[in-house]
Amino acid sequence: MSEVVVQGSAEVVDEILRTLDRELPDIAAQIREEIARGRMVKGSKLPESIRQDRQDALTAQRLGRIGKDELAEVPYTDDESLAILCDTLLTLAHSLTANRRALLGLLVDHGIHSGHVTFAQPDETQTAEPSSLQIEGEAGRAEVMFRRVRSLIEPAREEVGSWH
Fold this sequence. Notes:
Number of strands: 4
Number of helices: 5
Low-confidence stretches: none
Order of helices and strands: HHEHEHEEH
Largest sheet: 2 strands, antiparallel
Distance between the termini: 8 Å
Structural class: mainly alpha
Radius of gyration: 22 Å
Mean pLDDT: 83
């Protein structure tokens, strides 16, 4: 993670999540959960201010000291949240593209000339209508979408770094 603090990271995260709420609410919810969860940090690696606050709370409750190997949950910084969001969206876009390419390759490998694929439940208890897609067109659209996501996210990733 970069040590540079980017001004406005929290606002950028909020704006992107509001857009995702409209377009991909399940994805937005998963990202919010990940960001809210924070990260686990060893007691010896806690920032001094957080360590002192936690130790004061333990002392007030007449509990022991924070052990160096104990784990504590620490909230993500705004920049870390933005990095997680960027990485998640880039990974999602890459996965969509790779999945469609793999499906297209599978069709070719098995000599299937139709690019139309229908997804349905394997049994007769299906309650929803089967979904289908024209895989060649979807693969092309996924490629375009991946390049667009990458170009939109790259400036933020340069500022805050990658989470991985």
